[in-house]
Design brief:
Shape: globular
CATH class: Mainly Beta
Largest sheet: 14 strands, mixed
Oligomer: single chain
Number of strands: 16
Strand order of the largest sheet: 9-10-11-12-13-14-15-3-4-5-6-7-8-16
Radius of gyration: 20 Å
Strand content: 35-45%
CATH topology: outer membrane lipoprotein receptor (LolB), chain A
CATH superfamily: Lipoprotein localisation LolA/LolB/LppX
Number of domains: 1
Order of helices and strands: HEEHEEEEEEHHEEEEEEEE
Helix content: 10-25%
Structural class: mainly beta
Distance between the termini: 67 Å
Number of helices: 4
Amino acid sequence: MTNGCKSKKKMQKDKSNVTGVDTASDRCRLDFKNAKALTKYIKENELNYNWIYAKANVEALIDGKEESFDIKVRIKKDSAILVSIQYLLGIEVAKVLITKDSVKMVVYPKKQYFRGDFNYINEILHADLDFDLLQAVLFGNSAAFHDDDDKLKPVTDRENCRYLLSTERKRRLKKINQGQEPKKSLQTMTLDPVTFKILKNEFIDVATNRIFTATYDNYPAATDSVYAPRHVNIDIVAEKKVNLKIDYVRMEKNTPQKLSINIPPKYEPIQVKKQQ
């Protein structure tokens, strides 16, 4: 290894430890960044991949009910997400296959399956989920947003030594039951002042005041082959309150994965009743 390579790696390692705070004075040292600059840095520093595989431990709290399980996540970017859910002893209990316009699920112990789309599921759960949001928040990326000057609001938060960027999300879903484009949905990203990785991503649906928040920590060194957070905390505040703590124990990218669900012929469809 040449000295030049050693120097470059040392610089990358040192950079990953910088927080934007002058440790000698404990003062925040942030230069002003306009909206266009923050947008550029976000996109340049997001996790870039074609395929990704990850294994994680999950603690879930849904309306006061606690559950713990393991998941395996396989993603082909902008195409499909396959989540396998396992309990103790590695027994697979469910699989969920998500695309931009469909959701399929198999629950093995009950010998049941579900086929539907995001509009129907969001109507049932009174949530505001879509493929782009799920793909983004699992690994600390931003969901697609408008980058017009009049829709971007940059903030330099010197008290917490962070940059913030608020914007309107780009949405592909139609408004449930109305066949219209949904009202604006806001996204606010809190950024590390050096790496410009997202530390917190908050989504607010203005029409319903539902809030989806993802916070990130335990980023590895910048030289890691998968430079993504190892801990993700997700809070959903809607008619139901949901908290998910995701701790990744393994990640690898750009290895093609099998993305499919087999529904046995004798399985029964899950009957989901719409709320009035």
